[in-house]
Design a protein that fits this description.
By secondary structure, this protein is mainly alpha-helical. It is built from eight helices and no strands.
Length: 196
């Protein structure tokens, strides 16, 4: 079970890092649009399309990555005060009752929409550039499928926690600045207390 969780976490990591480049493309496109609009008085016809397509791609495909890192929003006020086994039991119930039905609905509804978009060669109706949107429509069921796979790994994580009484280790690839500052402060306090 741990091997499966590790494999899915690595897959989510790879997908998350790959689609993080959408932020760079999005930033460059918007920067060019602002420069072209205000410096050259020549706005582009494609910047709006690129912005929502890159943001949409990032949103659809980064969900599994965020879930693998425990980055989704939760009501931590109560949750963090519970014992790990209680957390795991509540998480398990919530995954079964709410998470999987929602994700499976996205897959079920997204596949026919993506197929229809490919069949018609769907383009953006909001742009004179006729940017194709069928690749973006495809990312909805694909992203939901990766999210479902990560959800299965999270259920396995809950089962491991129920058995052992502690959460299995998550992969760490980035650290919140807040956590780094807390660790630095704790190290400074420890050094100060260790001095005679």
């Amino acid at each position: 079970m741990r091997g499966f969780v590790r494999f899915v976490d690595q897959l989510s990591l790879w997908i998350g890092h790959s689609f993080a480049w959408c932020i760079v493309i999005l930033t460059l496109a918007i920067t060019w649009e602002v420069v072209a609009r205000y410096a050259f008085r020549a706005p582009t016809v494609w910047a709006f399309d690129i912005s929502y397509m890159m943001y949409g791609a990032l949103f659809f495909m980064a969900g599994a990555y965020a879930l693998s890192r425990g980055g989704h929003v939760r009501g931590d006020i109560l949750y963090r005060t519970w014992q790990p086994r209680t957390q795991a039991a509540v998480d398990l119930v919530l995954y079964i009752l709410f998470f999987f039905p929602g994700v499976l609905a996205l897959i079920y509804a997204g596949i026919p929409q993506a197929a229809q978009a490919w069949r018609y060669g769907e383009v953006s109706i909001y742009s004179p550039a006729n940017i194709p949107v069928y690749p973006l429509r495809t990312l909805l069921p694909v992203g939901a499928a990766f999210l479902a796979l990560q959800g299965i790994a999270e259920v396995c994580r809950c089962i491991i926690c129920l058995r052992e009484g502690r959460w299995p280790q998550r992969l760490h690839d980035v650290e919140e600045l807040e956590n780094q500052l807390i660790e630095q402060h704790q190290a400074q306090v420890a050094r100060a207390e260790a001095r005679p």
